[in-house]
Amino acid sequence: MVQRKTLEIWVGLFVVAGLLGIAMLAFRVGNLTVADVSNGYPVMARFDNIGGLKVKSAVTMAGVRIGRVASITFDSERYQAIVTMNIDGRYDKIPTDTSAAILTSGLLGEQYVSLEPGGAEQYVKAGDTLRLTQSAVVLEKLIGQFLFSKAAETPGNEKPPAPSR
Amino acid sequence: MNLIRDLGAGVIESVERLGRASVFFYEVIAGAGPLFRRFFLITQQIYAIGVLTLLIIMVSGLFVGMVLGLQGYNTLVRFGAEDSLGLLVALSLVRELGPVVTALLFAGRAGSALTAEIGLMKATEQLAGMEMMAVNPLTRVIAPRLIGGIVAMPLLAALFSAVGVLGGHVVGVGLLGVDAGSFWSQMQGGVDFYDDIVNGVIKSFAFGVTVTWIAVFEGYDAVPTSEGVASATNRTVVYSSLAVLALDFVLTALTLGEV
């Protein structure tokens, strides 16, 4: 039988090691270490189409993440999506005529909101809505447009293009 | 005709055992109150269940992580995505392999020992002797083991995952030449604290309850002969492994469903 004292020390070490394991998972493996949006303020934007944007997607300016998408709702009167973004309180000098666009990181990456600053003197406050928005690019629509413009280019539309290519 | 009769008897028997196990669980938890004044009893069990299982858990975690690194690299490199190796290793470990493999090892190492110990206590009438001395064996013997197992299991699973990630790092970065920076940053970008890590801890907690519960119940319910103890130990390992795998499916379906 192990001495009571040594036994307690071992159990203490075990518990400490286990907690350290959880801490390592949380801070080193997980993303708890990246101080997420702190005392953020909400800014709204209306989009005709948000594509694959999700809650917690990044909101970036000049490529730097300055906030996250807090919620996405649907306006049933104007048939638009209302994206509420939670912008970090440190970045409180965003001009009111800033435009928001939904872009994709890489060809198949996640979608995020990119803000392009305008030139206005006033800065957006909590609860403001950004007027200038650009919807997500839907690949199928793009391909459809491309095909239509190709078809329109063909003179007279009588003959299919030569199958040389 | 006999077959049908046996089938019915088997079903009734299992339902009855399930009921007994539930009542037993309730009685153990309800009677565990006085235990906190004698905390050393629990400490002793955490030592026997947790500390002594630590070595096998860490060694297995290291090797599982290394295999994941090797296997994942070979698949990912085909798509030129070997930078995501860290993410693959961490997510598989934290969400699935950590809790499940730990619970299986835990059932084999600690669960079987618990059943054999309690079953032998019953066979040698130590439990009956305690009752004669007006000591409730559920409080004195069963409850510390149950609590010890429930405390130890999440810690063991967390250590398994942590060591596994390090093992994946050793193979991926050390041997196969994945960039260390992207290994960690991809991991941190893709592993969510609440969705993945807390989820894994909840899972391992649920497995800890299940495995320890089955182990102490099988021991307490064993036929008090050497044969009975042997078959109870056997049942502990089989039932708790099956229960862990089935429960894992349910828990995964529950948590993935809402994303």
Tell me what the structure shows.
Chain B: It is a multi-pass membrane protein. Chain B: One of its GO terms (molecular function) is phospholipid transporter activity. Chain B: The complex is composed of two ATP-binding proteins (MlaF), two transmembrane proteins (MlaE), two cytoplasmic solute-binding proteins (MlaB) and six periplasmic solute-binding proteins (MlaD). The complex is a heterodimer of chains A (165) and B (259). Chain A is an alpha/beta fold and 165 residues long. Chain A contains 2 helices and 8 strands. An 8-stranded mixed sheet of chain A has the order 7-1-4-3-2-6-5-8, with no helix packed on it. In chain A, a hairpin with a 4-residue loop joins strand 3 and strand 4 (80-87). With 259 residues, chain B is mainly α. Chain B has one domain (54-248). In chain B, 86% of the residues lie in helices and 0% in strands. Chain B has 8 helices and no strands. In chain B, helix 2 (39-76) runs antiparallel to helix 3 (85-123), helix 2 packs parallel to helix 5 and helix 3 packs antiparallel against helix 5. The chains are: A alpha/beta (165), B mainly alpha (259). Chain A binds chain B through residues 2, 4, 7-8, 10-11, 13-15, 17-22, 24-26, 28-34, and chain B through 40, 43-44, 46-47, 50-51, 54, 90, 94, 151-152, 154-156, 158-159, 161-163, 165, 184, 187-189, 191-193, 196-197, 200-201.
